[in-house]
Amino acid sequence: MKLNFLNDMLYSQYGKELSEKIIQGYMQKRPVTLRVNTLKTNINNIKDILLKQNIEFKEVAWSKNALVLNNVVEQDIKNLNLYEEGQIYMQSLSAMLPVIALNPKPDENILDMAAAPGGKTTQMSAITQNKAFITACEKNKIRAERLKYNLEKQGAGNVNVLVEDARNLSNYFSFDKILLDAPCSGSGTIYLNDAKVENIFTQELIERSIKLQYILLKKAIDILKKDGEMLYSTCSILKEENEENIEKLLKSKKVEIIPIDLNLFKGVPLLPSNIEGVVTVCPTNLYEGFFMAKLKKL
Question: Whole-angstrom Cα distance, residue 18 to residue 10?
Answer without folding.
Answer: 8
